[in-house]
Every structure is written in C-alpha cells, then in structure tokens.
Queue: 4 jobs
Job 1
Amino acid sequence: MDFGSAQGTFVKGTKLEANQPCVLVNGDQVRFGQSTRIYIMNNLETKQEEGETEIMRSQLPSGFGVKKTAGGGNQNQDARSKREAEIAAMTLSMRTPILDTRKRSSEDQLEETNTEETTNPLKEQSNDKKKLSIQNEEKISDEERVRQEGLPVSHEVTLMGHDKAVLALALDPAGGRVIAAGLDQKALFWDFGGMDKGHRAFREIEPQSGYSVVALSFSPTGDRFLCCPTSVHPAIFTREGSELIRFVRGDMYLADSIHTKGHTHPVTGGCWHPLEKDQVLTCSSDATLRIWDLNGPTALEGRLICQDIYKVKNQRGTRVGATTCCYEPDGEMIAGGGADGSVQLWKIGRGAGASGRPDVVMRTAHGGNEVTGMAYSSNGRMLATRGDDDTVKVWDVRRTATPLRVYSDCPSLFATSNVAWSPDNKVVCCGTSVRKGTGVGSVKFFNVDQDDGPLYDVGLVEGGSVISVAWHRELNQIVCGTSTGAVKLLYDPLLSRNGALLSSSRTVRRSFMSMAKVDSGMAVGDVIINPCALPMYQDENYRKRPRGEDPVRPGDLRRPDKGPTSGPEAASTAIPPSRKQFQEQYLNGRIKKHNLRDQDSRDELIKYADKVKDSQYTGNAYAHNKGYDKLATKTLEQEKDDAEKEEKRKIGLGIQ
C-alpha cells in the first residue's frame, strides 16, 4: 500500500493509487519513487511465514515486551491479545476481496483486449510500445544487478602513452596517482588532480635503460614506490620519479644463495610491506624471496644489502625459480609462487627461510604450470592465485588441501598476469589473454560465494589482451594494463569516488592559438595567419634555413669572435701599434728559429752521434757498436752517384 508518497510506488512499472492495498506475488518488480533499484519478490508463502513467526515467538522469553507490576501480574496481556486479534481480522478481510477483484480485473482486461483487437486497430501499436518498455525494464534490471554486485564497470577511461604492453600498475594509497610500466622500458605518471579529459601523462621516466618493468608498488605513505625491472637491481624511487637507492647484485659464483647479498638472476616481482614504510619484498628466478630493510647496510656506491632470504624449492628439494610474491595484509606472512606451479607460505622472521622449509605448501596448486599472480583478501583469510594452466583458484589459508573455488577459461599468455580482490572480498577479477589480432581481451569477475562461472565479463581490447589489473579499495575503480599499450580505467559514478571522476568533468585545455578570436567575436578557423608570411609576399630567393645550419658560416667551422671593429668599444679594446709590432717580431723570430720544415732529420741525428759515444746510458749491450755505426753517412743520391762513378771506372779499366 502506498500512503500518499510524493513520488509514488511502482509495481511492474505501474504506479499504485494512494491508500489502496495491493497484493504482491512471486516475480513482481517493485520500485519506490525515482530510485534506480528494483526489488523482485520471491518465496512469498503466507502460511510458512506465519509458522515461522510463531516459532520465533515461542523462542522469546515469556515476559518479553510485557511490563510487569510489583505483584508479578501481567496487566497488558489481555489488551495485547485483543489488539492482535483485531489486526488479524483486519488483515484477513483485506486480503480476500483484493484477490477476487484482481482475478476479475485480469479476466475483464482479457475480454476488453479481445474485443478491442477486432474494433480498434491502434491498440496493436500501444501493445508493441508496452512490450518495448518491458524489454527496456529488463535491460535496466541487468545493469542494476551488476551495480548491486558492486562492480564499477559502467564507464571507461583510456590512458594513452605506452608503445608496448603494460605489465605493471601501481596506485598510491590515497588514489591520486597512477603509474604504469611495461615492455617499452619506461614508466608513465598520471595525476587525477591535474588531468583533464585528455588524460595525458605528466611525467615519463626510464627506470633502468634496456630493461622492461615487471612490478610496481607504492609505500603505505605513498611518498615512494618500488620498481622491479628485469635486471638484478630493484630500485626505490620518489613519488616524482627520482631514484633514491638501488639494490646490490649478488655473487653468481656462490653455490648457496644464503651467502649472497642480492639477486643473481632477473627479478620477477616485488611489493611493499602493507604496514612498514621501510621494508619491501622481491622475488627472482634465482629461487629466492628477499626482504630488504631500507635502513640496512649498504655496499659500494650505496647499494642496499639483503640479509633475510627465503628459498623456493620443488618436491625433490632442488631450487626452482620464484615467479611472483605478495604480503599478507597484516604483514606477518609472505607468499611466493614457483615455476613448478607450487604456492609456498612463510612466517616472517630473521633467517626463517634459511632452512628452505616453508610453513605452508600447496605443491600442486597449478599442476606444474608457472604461477603468474597471487593476492590476499583484505581480511587475510583467502588467497587467490593464477597460473599458466588458465585457471584462477581461491584458497582458504587455514585449510590448503583443496581450493575453495576453481575458475577455468582464464587464458594467460604473459608472465605477469595477476588477480585482484574487490573491497568487500566478495569478488575476484582477472584479465584474459588472446592471440594478437584474434578475439577480445576482457576482464572477468567471479563471485567467491558461487562456483558457476563468471559473474560478469567486460570486453576491453579488440585483438589484444588484458594483462594486469588493480582494484583500488578507496576509489572503487579498476585499472587494467593491456597488450596494446593502453591503460583502461573502469568506474561507476554511483559506486566510485574521486579518481577518474575528477578528470572526466574537466574540459580539455586548448592552446592560445586555437582560442584566438577576432573583434567581431567569430573564430577564423581557430588559427590567425599573418599575410606577410604567405608565399606571394616572399622573395624569390627566400629559402628556409635548415635546422642546425650555422647562420654565420654555413658548412665551415666558426672562427673565434674578433670583438668590435669600430666605435668606442673597438678603441678601448684595440692593441697599441708598438705592442703589436713587438709581438710580430718576436713570433717571426721564434718561427724562423724553430721551423721544422727546413730541417733535415738525418743531419739532426748525426749531430748527436759524437755526444753519445761515451754516454753513461749505453751499457755492455752496445759495447761492440755503440749504437751509431749503423747510421748512414751518405744520402741515397750520393750513394747512387758514387756507384755510377765506380762502374765507369771499372769499365775504363776493363774490369767486368
């Protein structure tokens, strides 16, 4: 019954009359006023309800709701029983005639429609409109169902800037900044407070030249973030992108990784401690998880040294590469995934992992396939994992023998494909991968209370994959990294707050030239053209100088500036004639005296031959020749002339 509300009450799209009772049956849709929520009535059985109320009343104390007198009697018992009998009679009298009238009214409506179909041809159009309205209501109900599940997927924003796949995402705790990095070896920064509808990145950095980035994580205070490239040197950066400290590299020639000070193989993942601002966790393909104390000792060049090491081993006790890692929400345990498909948990303690024995092991979590991502629920009771076996599994960390839920059909083609939890821990989501140019990459949502497939599937990338996802708890918005380089941000204006809502409402900034107006108030093509710049006003010999060409001496090196050659400044800086003449004479004398072009190198060497005959620098090694007997005493021309003279002399004497 509607008691005369201002906006009314609607049942199946029909507004109820004020103060007129109406009986609801199973399947009726009720909407109050202009609310967007629609309530569907189910399991309406009056007898069962009355029986349940009687059972509930029997369980209450006998004196519940009754005021006792000093003598112990119940004064209001008779009055209450009479009032209940009156209410029951009124309810029964209201129900019976309403049911009859509703049946009669439905029969009358059928008769009226049958008669009007033959007499009124315009009735068919009204019936079609009613069918369309019913279909629209069903569509709206589907959207409302998704919204009731708390999925912020009604709106989408695209953040561009990357050229290749985005592998890692990070949002600061306040939700004001997003950082994305990937295969293009660069990290882009977006600030919701300073963006407009263009959604352009305000900063771009290259964390480590030549290495792609696989993991990003903000500190609890949001003033720093951890960057894990595929090298052996994870690093800490400020919020603005300046590097603070880099981790040391371990000695790869040591057989036992316990004795190494850092990672010896490429890093595969990392995250910041959820509570401690000076502690981070990283994992590597060298089969170790390492906890780094940012206030700990450092090596050469200020490289940070690690002292807490946790080994990842397979069932045979040999080392296996660690592929992903994460902290428990309270920071008391860490989890690591292995390349053999195992998931291992350790309690944090100094040297707790040195023995290589984790506290909890799910040895066949993903059946021998590499674990690509994992995440704890906010209450720390459940752990969601994802592997290359195209499944997402939800585990109860208190009972790890079998998973609580197993969701299949989640293709994974990237080593950083991860999972994310909703703020209320009821839904887990992940991105799906497809071959390049085939299919649609999407984000799938699964209700952990159900085991009947995805709750909702949102297609995002045509011919691309959705690799990494991050669901921010404060904003209730989802950020997705794709293989095309685009970063997709999903939100709902009714469920989300701040974040993309701040930038989506701002208009795009236009340049000064595009905003120029003429005096009449009309824009001329958004551009003002100077008439003198047109080709018809330019000289025939005009040529635009190429960029980088020297305007003074094209193609040649520029000589030093000679300074002013006329005017008062030239007189003050000019050299006096007497001084200039002295300098010229001095330089000419030095040049003539030491002109090497007119010297004979052979004569210069022979000149020093007599000086080194008895020199103390020549020892017994040159006693037989003193080092100067080998020097020629004649030039080649002289030797040639002497040879010709000797030959003529022999001919004249008849000597052959």
Job 2
Amino acid sequence: QAYNCLIHFYKREKTLCRMEDGTNWVLELEEALLDEAPPQHIKMLLAGRPLPASLRTDVWSHCLEISGRKSKIEKFDDVYDHPDQNEIHKAAQELVKQSKSDDPLQLQAEVESILTVYFKTSGQKFEQEITHLLKPIVDLSLTRNEKYCVFQTVLDRFIPKQIETSSIFDLTRLLLLYHDPKLCNHIDSLKISFHQFSRSWFGSLMAADCDPEVTVQLWDLYLVNMDPWIIFFMVTVMLVNFRDNILEVEGDRDELLTRLSSLPSQIEAEDIPDLVTLAQVYSTRTPSSFKSSYECTVFTQPNQELDEEMKSLLCLPVNADEILASELVNFQFFVVDCRPAEQYNSGHLSRAFHLDCGLMLQDPAQFSTACSALLAFQQSALTAQAGGEHLVFLGDGQANSDVDSNMMMAVSRFLQKHSKFISVLVGGYPSFHQEPQAVHHEYKEPAPEPSPNKLGSIKTNLKMKSANLKDSLINYIYNPSTQEPKHVDYSKRGSKLYKNTGDVFCLEDDEDENVVELKDLEKQSDTIHLAACQRVGETGLLSPCHLLITTSQLVVLNPGPRPGTCSPASSRHLSSIVKITSKKRQPEIITFKFGTSQNDEVTVFDMDRFFIPTAGKVTSVVKNQIEKLKE
C-alpha cells in the first residue's frame, strides 16, 4: 500500500511539473528560488499556473522578503491583556478548527499570540476581517516570527487603510461604472452601497468569503504579482461575470444584497487563473491616473482631503500626462473638448472633438444631434486608428465655472445612457500646459527643444519612405520562409551577388524599413482577415497588435511608429495550430497552441494568447482556413 501511494504521488508530481511543451517548469522555479531571483522572474515562471503546495511557503516567503526579518512578536511578554482578548481567543479557536495542523493546541497558542501582539501594538480594536488574513498563513511551514512577518507584510502592502471609510468603495464603484455603467446604475437604483457587500473582500483579500483551498491559490497569484490594486479589478470582474444574475433582481433589495455578498463563495479553485488574468486585463484597459493620485491615501497614509475628493467624483479621473502619452503611442483616448468655440479655436488637441455642452440647456435636440455626430466620429477614428474607445471629457479647468458645470451634465447624460469608458480630464485644458511636479535629480544641461519646423520636416521624411520597402516587407509577411541570399566565399566577392550593393554595416537607424501600412496589407490578394487585438503576455500585460490571417499564415503585427502602420512580430503556418481555446467567462481571450499532431497524440511546443474583441469572427476564419489547407 505504501508503495502504491508513493507511485501515485510520483505520477501526480510528474504530471504537475510537466508543461505542455515538455519543460519541467517546477524545477526551474526551484532553481530560481535558490538563486534568489527577483519576484518578476518568479511571476513569469508561474505564468498563471497552479503553484505546487510544496513550494508555497518558499514562494510566499521569497516574494514578501521575510527571510531574516525580525518582528514585534519576538519581544512579546506572553501577557494576553488586550481589551478585546475574549474575541481574539475565540477567533484563534475558529481559525485552528479549519487548519490541517497535527498539533491544534500549539497552533492556537501561536495564532492567539500573533493576533494579540498585532492589536496591542497597533492600538486597534478587534476586527474580524483582519483575523481572516491568517487563514492562508497558519498552515505554512514557518516559525511564529516568520508567520507574523507574512501577516504584517500582507497588511502593510495589500490591505487598504481605513476600510471603514467609504472612499475606497466609492472608487470601486467608479471602476464598475467605467466598465459596465448599466450594471452599476442597477445596483445604485436599489440604494446598495459597495461597502455593504464588499468590505470583507478588501479587508481579508477574499479569505473571509472563499473556501480555504480557493484562497491559497488566489494568494499564490496575488502575492507573486505584487500589485495591491488587483483586488479592485477582481471585484469588478466578479460583478461583471455575474451581471445577468444581478440584473434579473428588479426590486428586491435584500435579495440582491444577499446575491452580491455570496459572489466569492461561488468561485472555485479552477476559476482563479481566469479571475486574476481578467483582473489584469481590466487593469490594463483602465486609465491608470487614479492609481498615482490616490495610492498614498488608499495604501499608505490616509488623507482626508483626498478621501473627500474620491467621494465627490462623478466618474473616473484622468490626468494630462496619461492622455499626452497615449497620443504618442496608441491613441487610447478620444478627447471631447467641451469648452466654448472661441476657446477651442484658439487652441486644442489635434484629434479633439468639439462638443458645445451649452446646447444641452439651450437646444436639447441640437445637442442630441451633436452627441450622435460625436459617436459617429469616434467610430470613424477607431476604424482609422486615430482615436480610442475611451471617451475623456475636458473643460476649462476653472472652479465652479459654467463650462465645467455644463460638461458634467453632458457626462451624466452619457452615463445614464450606459456609455462605457467615460472619464474626465483633471484640471481641464490648462493642465496640458502646466509644468510637471519637480523631481530631484542630478542637474544636467537641458537639451534644446526641436523647433516646430524641424518636427514638421521629420514627419514629412517619415511619410516619404520608399514604396519598395513596403513591397519587400509585404512579401516577407506573406512569404516568411523565403531564404535570404547567402554570403559568398571571400574570393568571389566580385560576383554578381555583391554587385551594386550598399555597405553591409551601417550605423543609421533602419527601423522604418520594417514598417508597412495596414491598408496595404488589407488589399493584398492573400489576406483573408485583419483584426485589431491585444496580446496577453506571460505576466498578464496587454500590448496592442493586429492579427493577420492569410491563406497559409497567422501573422502577429506590432504597432508601427505612425497611426495605421505596423511591423511583423511573428509568423506561423496555420497547419502548426493544433488547438484553439477560449476563456469560459471571457470569450474574447483566445489562446492559439502550436505544435505537431500525429494520430491522437498532440505535442504543444508554444502558445500565444490574445484579447480579441471580434474573437468569434477571428476563430471562425482561422478554422475555416485550416480546413481549406487540409483539403
């Protein structure tokens, strides 16, 4: 019997350790821990896969950097005299009941001492949510001091400060309003505050509401990612995934509150990788300005002024730096300039759409027409890749001005009509001209700024690239297997192969030689379909790209230096696709697995994952083209 158990354990570990591409990733993870690799490397090795229980203690300790640290519990005098000591004792008993420890009495004493030291040294009253944080920690193979360090580090890094204030939950509501305004408005209509159903989610990182096995797997990915904001997006993802169950409750407030409170209990262990991945996807698709603006008051030192500011927000705020960065990179935003026409005409962003919000009161019919024109123009900009799906409204930045008041009324109208991705520029148009806050660096002589004429000439030169380079690049995309001319022997350098060729080595930047217009690719006879999407990296990071499906290839195209351009990142033959999978609760996330197939045996050697808004269309085209190749 012992032999059979050993064989079963060996087979289970072997299956667990073996990736689909045959590499032993767990051994690589063990080596990375021994080499004290940075958490980012651990994150890439884990790549959303379940962490073996045997490595959980080492991974958590490594990512939280608790090795060799001392804690306040080392000086504990074993005096259990906190005013709420009875509640602490009962909480310790309950935690031990759910533990797998062989020595429950010893563990109970350990847990009670950890909680007592924390509440005594922090001067806080007993809080049940905080005790739940020990659930995933108590069974780790650590000393009492190390467990206290893990507990304290999780509290300091990942738990929002002053959870009893509503500002944290107001911010959570704004994130749901940004991604699903209809769902948010429905919850608001029944006068349900986010504080009423999600307090324990934030206070315990789901430990109070999820099954213990689910909690530890959630923390595996949470701690490795080292991003305290993930909890906000996990809440958003849970609500969006259960939106049908929420929307079907029309007028029963108590019933809806019960359903909302029970959402984490419906999560199973197999759902965790998808939940964390989707939270990262939502984070990437959300303006990040609010993180830098409110991170200090949320996770470090509460600031009453900032808390009041969060409570007063109508929608998600965006700062000027993020919009300008987007203008240079990916056109994530579609800017709606709500200032009077004379201010707009005196200066505005080149792609900004002017909307006279004063018409909302003066001529509602004309304002409605202007809003329809705005949405049509945005759709045209999206098609031409000259504007994003995220609407950001800007005013004149003057406190209590009629311009900003009218703008806010317009924003309210869009939110009432359940328009997604609505935000407001902090400080209005003048914020584009404000100097950034001073940062203390070593002084360097500032480089002269290029003149407008010089910038114009650079743009002109970029646009005047030779058509021959385009043709050669298109030929490469559609014929990736074409071999380049080989070098000839030194004694034959006078042959025709080298005749009239330029220098082999050059110091000039030739990056634009790999750039092609998307519209030129669409016109090619071999093109079957071209789709805009985002590539999901191993760490969950999204990067914009295009998928080009030709008669025989699946090509990934990265954005070029100018709108409407791209450069090839990879190209694979369609016959190498052995499997196409999608996320059950987010069908837009598609995974292409590449490998070989012989009889019923499939060997996967690589995979690519994408967030594709038109996933159904893309997968259908790929499957149809693969079938045609088989014929």
Job 3
Amino acid sequence: MEVAYLYSKRRSEFGKKCNFANGETQILESILPTKEYDEQYVQQNPCDKAVVTIPNMSEAYVNTESVVMKNTSMSHTEGGWPKDVDFTESSDVTRFRKKAEKDESYLSAMRTLVPIAERCMKQNNTVDIYEQYFEDDAFEHCSGPPSAKGLAVFRDPSPVKRTATSIDWHPEISSSKIAVSYSIMNFQDDRFDDPNLSKQSYIWDVTNSNKPFLELHPSSHLTCLRFNPKNTDTLVGGCYNGLITYFDLRKPNGIAGTCSPLDTSILEKSHHDPVSDVYWVSSKTGHQCASVSTDGKMMWWDTRKLDEPLDSILLCSDINNGGVTLGGSSLEYNGEAGPTKYLVGTEEGAVVSLNLRNRKTNNGVSVYDGQHFGSIRSIQRNPTHNKFFMTIGDWTTKIWAEDLKTPIITTKYDNGYLTGGCWSPTRVGVFYTINIDGGLGVWDFYHRQNEAAYTHKVGDAALSSIDVQGNGKLVAIGDANGTVSLLKVCESLASPQKDEKAGINNMFERETRREKNLEMREREIKRVQALTKKSDEDDANNSDNGEAALRAIDDKFKILLSS
C-alpha cells in the first residue's frame, strides 16, 4: 500500500526570513507567587505536566476496497398448494383444480382479470417490440487500422512454471468461463522432480483474474481440455500419461471450489504417449469423444464407461504394405462437415483424413501431399465453409480443400516459428496465429492475402495456445510460463463484413480450380513423357533388330560365296 504524508503550514508563514542576532538577556515579564487563589484548588502531589510547542499534525490514507464477487444459487419449487394436496401427484392436483374452478369466487375473479389480460395482449400485438430496424445495415471496414487491447492476465497459481497447453471457451457465447489446462511438455524435465509442482488445471472467470473460478484435480497433468457442447457442465481432458479424464462440474466430489474426476481411463488401455488433443463427437447420448496421441493411435471413448475405448485406429500411411505410422499432434472434428469425418495433424507434418465409412480401405485413412517441414500444431475447418480447412506448422499457414491432396493457399514465412492458431468464429476470412517469439498475427483474407493485417506483441515468453470466444471479440492466449492473456480486438476484426462469405468462398473455389488445373497439367505432362520414353525405347529395339537381321543376311551370303 502506498502511504503519503502531507505537511502544511499557514500561508502567512511562507517566505518569512529568519533573523538571528546576539543580544543581552531581558526579562519580559515576572509574575510573583501569591496565595490568593489557593482555596480554589486542591493540591496534587506529585504533579506532572508536559508541554509541547510543536504544532499538531494529522495523518490519513484512502484506499479503494476491492469488490469480492461470489456465485450464489436459488432453488425454485412449486408452492402455494394446501397441505392436504400433494403437488407431485397429478391426480390430487387435477381433483383440486376441478373443485376450485367450480367455486363462485374463482369465476368472479376470472371475469375481472380476463378483460385486463386480453387488453394487454392486444397492446403487445399492436407493436412488434422485437422488430430489428437496422438488420440490413452491415458493418463496413473502419477507416482506422486493426487493433487489439489487453483486458486481463490470468497467472498460473502453481509456484513451478508450467505451460498453458490448451484453452477452451465455454460453448455459450454469453458465458465468461474459460478452461485452461497446464502441463510440462518437455520429456524428463527436471521440474517433474520438484515437490511444489502442481497437477491442477483451472476454469477461470474473465471478470475475476485474481482467483480461479474452479480447480480441477486430475491424476496427471492435463495436456488438453474441452467443454461438452451439449452438456456444458461436463468436460473431458487428456493427460500427460495418456489417460482420458472426465469431469462433471455438478458433482465436485470435494471441497468447495474444487472438482475431482468423475471417471478416468485405465493406463493399460489408454494412449502410451501424452494425449495431443481430444474432441467431443456427435452421438445420440452426447457422451462420446475422440482422442489422438503421438503414439500413432486414435481412440473413441464413452465417458460413462472409460474402462476401455469403444474403438481404436492406427494412423498408418499404408497398413497393408507396411507403411509409416504417423503420430498425431492435433485433431479437428466438425459434425457439420460429416459425423464420420476427422482431420489429424501429425508430428511428421503430414495431414491425415479419416472417414469411418471407408474402413475397408486402409482403415479409412488417407494422407495428403504437400506436408509441413515440422509438426502441425493446429488444424481446423473453416467455421462457415466446412469444405476448407487450415493447418499451422513450421513457419507457414496452409489452406486446404477436402477433395485436393495439395494446399490451395500458403502464406509467406513468419519471422518466428508458429506454435498454433485458429479461425475467427464470426469473420469467415480472419484467422489468428501465434509464434515462439510471443507475437500474435491476425490475417484478414478479405482485406489482403500477402501479409498479416495486424501483429501484436503479447509477451516475451513463447506462446503455446489460443482460442477465440464465440462472439469473436475476446481472444485468450496462453504462453510457456502459464500466463493467459485476454485481448479484445476491434470491431472490424469481429463483426462480419458485407458480402464477405460469398467473397471468401469464391476465392477458395477459384484457388481450388486453379490447383486442379495444375494437377491435370502435371498428369498430362507425365503421360506425354511416359509415351515419349516408351516410343524411344521401341525405336531403339526396332533399330537393334534390323541391324541383327542385316548381319545374319551378310553371314549367310559369305557362307554361300565360300562354298
């Protein structure tokens, strides 16, 4: 607390000069003792009195009290029934209602209230209070450059520094909760031996950055964590030791403010490497999820029974001819693109497409060409045009089409090694990238494609994870020190632009046709070269055969002459 001292004196004392001089001692006043007033006083022995000539000073400080926020709940139950009526029994309720409706007081009350309610309903129907007056006015690009400002910083409470490995916003747009998983991703790191190392991950409320909203206590460090879009009170997480952990916030199983796993998979039947990513998948029950790991396996789980996976597939380029096993580093699933379609980014930089309907052909696994030079850190479909998806790895971002094995758009090399990224949920042509130098890049393909529209220095530490809220305005970014920074982007980067969807779709389709034409041209060139090579070989064989026939005729002629 900052303390300030303020000393003041009268205005007449300002600027007065002190004059000191030597002089003789003078008696200014002399009062002799007298007994005239002795009767008015009572003698006190001993008597001490202190006299201070220093003027009195006052000290005061002011500090704003912090507002403590807490969550409370209220339970609404049906009431107002007589004691002899059980409102949970429909027969008792029906019997009581029939009896009350026959009462004269009920009929008179209805005759009085119905005209009033009817009049109010007619007034509401007269004017449409939900009418949108400016729904056709689309927001245009502002004249100023794109910008972003920091709102809050959420620091890992653990005394040992850990990496914020994943960030996931609450599925409800109006919610202010984010789930952040923390772990140490370096193999055999010395920090694992520190007794102060914490295993907890947290759910934060963006309105309170001082304390986590809820603590999650898994059996191992969480490397990924996701809310269930159908049941937002449940989460699934992947652990550093390969386990799958299921949390239900309605059953905390511990003290207030903490939540323990409701169920955890068995070590022998789980992944053998840290879980790279996990996604909830479309199902009738809403309890199924899929996970991928660098051990080369993709597994499906039912969170109601995590004793063993529902299914498992080996990510192999060619399982019949001894192909290479690819370790999964990122996962993408979007039910709108197809309930059986998955996209996996691998450590080797290749993109793997998985379709469960084609299990008979290489387990439904197909590998794309044009891979990255490093691990694919993020892979995600465009939220509007699901046919197209984005991969982020090494120093570039690539845009792909499902029906092509090569990328249709590749960005220029970034100054720093890219560590992640994601699409904007509201702007079709906007996506975000983060790099190892602590920088954030915002690309707006609707504005320009040759360079980033905006760059922002988040911090000095390497950035590790990023996610954007459903309204597109708030961006949460995690770094290697466990710090999560909350940024708010400007309106032009969050609000949809006029004709943006059609413009971006036309651009993607144009680049797709261009890439298909190039592929056809390349196949045609290879076919012509193969035909030319075969024709040359045939001509060479024919010439060799003709020379051999001539030599045979010459030999026969020589034999006839000699005979």
Job 4
Amino acid sequence: MDTHGVDYAIFVVILVVSIGMGFFHAWRARKKKDTTNEFLMGDRKMGTVPVAVSIFASVVSGTIFLGYPVEMYTRGTQFSIGVVGLALSWVFSAFTFVPLFYRLRVISVFEYLDARFQSKYVRLYGSIITLLIMTLHSGVALYGPSVAFQVTNGFPVWLSIVISSTVTLVYTTLGGMKAVVYTDVFHASCMFAGIIAILVQGTREVGSFSRVLELSDRDGRIQFFNFDPNPTLRTSFWINVIGSSFTSFTISQPTIQRTCSLSSLTKAKWSMVMNAVLILLNNMLLVSVGLVIYAYYANIECDPLQAKLIANQNQLVPYFIRNCLNYPGISGALFGILFGGTLSTVSSNLNSSAAIVWQDILKHFFEHLSETRKTLITKILIIIFGIISTAVAFAARNVHGHVFQMVITFLSTFSGPMLGVFLLGALFPFANSKGALTGGVVATGFSAWIVMGSLIYNPHDKTLPTSVEKCNATNGTFPSPRNYTYFLRGHDESPSISFSTDGINESVLLMNWTPAPPSENRESKSYSSPLIRLYSISVYLISFVGTVNCVVIGLIVSLFTGGRRQLKPDASLMIPLFDRICCYLPDCIRRHLRCGIEYRENESASTENVPPKEGAVYDGSTTDKPIETSNDRL
C-alpha cells in the first residue's frame, strides 16, 4: 500500500495539534499562580464532556484497536459481551465510589486508603502497584502501534516509539491536566473518525454489511449467549460479563483524578455515565471492524494468519489496511487511531503517576517549598516516568505473543486485588489495615501464580476455523522491514521459501508451500491434574478471582486482628451501599446492615459546592476540617 500525501498530512496534524495544546495551555496559565492543584487537577474547573471523553481516551489505547478486531477474527464475538459488565461497573462507580472520592477532594486516590485505614503502608501498597501497572501499560501502549506503523509504512519501530513518547512528554509537561484532557478530546475524535473510515471502506470491499454478517454467521463468528458456567472456558457470557465487572479501571488514578477535577459532584457522576456510553459505542465499532476483516478474507478464502503471510496476530489489522484498503487517507486514518490512542493513554498515565508520587511519597518531605517549585517537581516526575515508559517499550520488542492478550492478562492480575482493597475500606467498617494489606498482597500473588501457570500451559489455544484454499499461487504483498529474512514453513517446520528484501513493497509469488494445519484441528490442551485445571481458569476471570480473594482474606484477617474492637471509621469514608440498594427496607433493618455506622442525612448535597483546598482530605461535612492521615501523624 502506498502512503499518500494526505496520510502524511494527517500524521503531521496530529503531532502539531498535540504539541500545540501543551504550549497553548502553558501560555494561558502564565498569569495564574503556578500550583500543583492547577497543574494536576486543572484547578478543579474542568468541563463535563471533555473529562468524560478524556476518561474514555485514557482507557482505550491503540493496542485495543489492534487487538480487539483480532479477537473477533480468531474466536468470534463472545468476548465483546463483556462490555455490558464493564459499562455497568462504570455506572455503579458513578453512584458509589465517585461521590466518596469527590467529597474527600483527593488528588491521589490512595489518600482515601490512608484516611480510611490510618496506615501509610496500605497507601504505599496501592501506590506502588498502580505505578507498576501504569508504567508497564504505557510501555506496551507505545510499542503496540509502532508495529503497525512498520507494517503499513516501513516506519522503524524505534523511531515510532521515540516520536510518540517525545510528543507526549512535551504537551503533558507543559500544559498539565488541561492539556492532557483537551488533547484527549482531539485524539478521541481522531480515533472515532479513523475507525468509521476503515469500517466504511472495508464494508465496501466486502460488498455490504449484510454480506459481512452473512459470512461471519456462517463461520461461527457471531456468538454472544454461551451460558455455559464452566470457568475454564476461555470466553462465555458469564465469564466475560462477570470478569469485566470487577476491574479497578473505574476507581483508577486517571479516572478519579479527572472526576475530581470537575466543579460539582453531579458533573462528576455524569462524566462516568457518558464514558460508559462511549465505551459501548467504541465496542460496537471495533466488533464491526473485526467482522469486516474476517468477512473479507473468508470471501477470498485466504487467511493471512494461517497462510503465514504475517508474522503474528498483532499485524493482522495493519496488514488488512495495507493490502486491501489502498486509498488516500485510509493509512492516515490508521495514524489517527493509533497515535490518538497511544498519546492519550500514555499522557494520562504520566500525569497520574506524577500525581501519585508527589501526593503519596514526596509531598511530606517538600511541604516547605513554594508552589512553583512543587509544580516543577511534578513536571520532572512526568519526564522521569516518560523515560521509563520508553525503556519498557523498547524492552517489549523482545516479548513475543499477542499484545492485546498480554495487556488484558497483566491488567487483570493487578486490578482485581486493587478493587478488593477499596471495597474492604468502603463497605466493611470492621476491615482494618492488617486485613487490607494482607488481602491485597496475597490476592495479587495468587492471581500472578495462576497467570504464570496459564502462560506456561496455554490451555486456551483453540481458534475458530479459517480457510486457505485459494492462497496457493496468489500474489501477495509482504510487509517486510528492511534487511529481514522470512521463512514460510509448513506443518513439518521445514522452510519452503526464504528471501531477503531491501524494501517494504516487495511483491512475492507464493508457491509450493504447505499451509499450517487447519485451526479446527488444534484442540485445547486437556489436563487431569487439579493444579493444571486451576491454571485453566479463564484469564478474563482473574480480576474477579483477585477481588474475591482480597475481600475474603482481608475480612478474615481483620476479624482475627481485632477489627470488631477498633473505632468505627468516619461515615464519610464509607459507602452507604445498603441504604441505596435496599432503601425500601425499614430503618430498623437497615441499621443492622450499616454495621453501626450512622450516615448523615442529605449527604449527597453536603459538599456539592465546597471550594477545594489543595492537599486537604475532607470529612464530608460543610466545615473545612480535614481528616487525619498517616502523614499528619508523622
């Protein structure tokens, strides 16, 4: 596929606008007092729609675009039903966790853990795990799209990584939260426009969307309602809905930092609901893209994966765009999607990482500095995390496998236990710091153990059947990087063709090769050992397993370490869950369900418009008295 001038123009516009946003917001803030509250929270005067779009953009990276359609292509649409649980979890969080954090006026979400458990160790546990998640996620987000650029345009992987990380660092460091949020809006617009352009043009190549659905349904790609309760299946209705419902995305640092930057609680709630709608819309579009790609290759009966026309699943989407959508602007649309998703995810993670390190670790030691110097420290932190994320991206080049699956697996390992720690604090008054810390650490270790076993034994390697009937003696374009040697191998692993290329647009005649065995003959591994069956639990259930383990272990440890004898936590640090979901019950019954906590009347309005004071964690009343944290006691 030739890269047209309009494609490069789109690429340049994305870079210029992104960097320009940083300079623009830095220029606008030049007359304001330079404070960490302004830099990290946008002075808590952000708009509802931009924040909602920014939350969406921080969750949906370019890696999602590369991997989601591949899941539809290789295993069908069953995975996508998980978006129902994910959307419900965002709405649930909007009316439970968001009011809790918003009233406390936190900058770092882990200030809540400190205030609730009165333990700097629980706060530090959450901070370290989240920093690890965001740094590795940023690295993979930088690496994934760089592979696509190499396939479509011969762009060196290292150069893509450097450009992406440099642009992100510039506008995030200069403009702070405001630049990140408004640039996210621009990137999200690019992503939606690019996805729609590719979807429309791909559908035209197949013939019509009804033809797409016909071919996909014929070959078993359309499946949503497999109600089999077996947890060792890779996907099912229950696995995906339950698994996606238990994720810490809805209470992650980037999410809460944005909702708390709004001027009222009502706006914060609406931003979460709007984000859920955007996630549903994006899911429908990516499912459609995956089905279009499958229908195209099913129609010509030549699966590039099975035919070994591409090295791995990460290259399927860019290979389709490169070889099948040779039109001006389509490659540019890919630029918009991947760069938009990458920059949004990485900038959000960098800004949030700086907020965590400053608020949870460094602030206590540098309280005497001026606001200008404090802001300078947070900018230096962004640069440091940007460099580390870039290093992770270069290291990711040595990791083989499906990038999307790698991201899902990694996030599931840590997000479940993290959600469990917050549930312990918000729902169970007798949960203490020992229980929270033990539950979080043990649940994280257990989830990591299952994931490692799953990676070793790979129990879910079965894919749906594809055809290579018409691949023989067909002209194909190999998206080969400069000076690489490729081997086409049959099922006996003996090379049939080898070649070197000095360019990216070599056209190669495929002949005398034996395709890999049909995917329907590759059965999932079967093990009789109970331990191996444990490793066979679907990776999409790992977050649910981690949450349950953390809560159960945390409650048991709390009960055995004097949890019932400790002072009741302040009502503003708890979620009155039963008052909200069982409001029809008599007060005498609900009083027992509250476990001794007496919630204030009209609590939802108590701090709706309390003016924020930087660094203060409020007790939910209309006074300015902050709740004591461990740092206050040092």
